[in-house]
Write a structure and sequence with these properties.
By secondary structure, the protein is α/β, with parallel strands linked by helices. It is 45% helix and 12% strand. The longest helix has 14 residues. It is globular.
Length: 233
Amino acid sequence: MTTKRAAIFDVDGTVVDSNHLHVVTWWEAFRQAGRHAPMREIHRTVGLGIGNLIEHLLGDDCGPDGDDPLAATHHALYATYFERLPALDDAGDLLRALARRGWKIVLATSASGAELSALRGAIDADDVILGAASADDVDDGKAAPNPARQAGELAGVPSERAVFGGDTVWDMKAAVRDGVVPVTVLPGGIPRADLEAAGARALYRDPGDLRRHLDAGVFADCESAEETTVPSR
C-alpha cells in the first residue's frame, strides 16, 4: 500500500510573485501611520504573521492601538492588487506534477479570507490543492511550527512524510521546528546564505526549476525511501 506524503507550500514569494507588493504596501501603511520602516527591513519580515511582522519592525514602539490600524491599512492597499496578482511561472504546473506523482498538495500561508482566495485564484491549481492552513487556523504563525503542522494534519500526513517549500527564513525555521523537509525557491529575494543557515536542504531558482528536478533531490529521495521501505507485519 502506498504511504501518503504531502507537499506543503508557502504562497507569497514561493508560488505567487507578491513579496515586493507586500513590501511596498506595508511601507505605505507605516508611512501613513507616521512610522518609519525601511523597505529592506520590511522585506526580511515578509512571511511572518501580521502581529509578529509589526512587532519585529517596531518593537516596543507599536503604540497603544496595537497592530490593527496598520494591518487594516496594509490590507486595503494590498487588496487593490487582488485581481492581478501574478503567479510565478510554472507554479501551477509544479503542483499538478507533484499531484500526479502521488503527493497531497497543501498550502501554509499567513494570508486568509479574501487575500487567500485571490492568491489561490492566481495559482489556478485548485483542482489539485487539498486545502490551506491559513492565519485563521493557527495561534502562532511562522516561524513557529504550527502552520506546517496544521498543513500536514489537513493532508493526514505525519511530518516525516512531508516536504515544505518556501522562500523565507521564517518558512525554513517553521519547517525545521516541525520536522518536515525544508526546501526553498528563490524569487522571494532572500539571500541563499540566510536560507541555508535557517535549514534549507535544497534551493531552486523558481517553481519551474523545482519541477524540472523532481526526479532528483529531496522529492525523489522521499519517493525512493517510500518504495524501499518494507511494510511491517
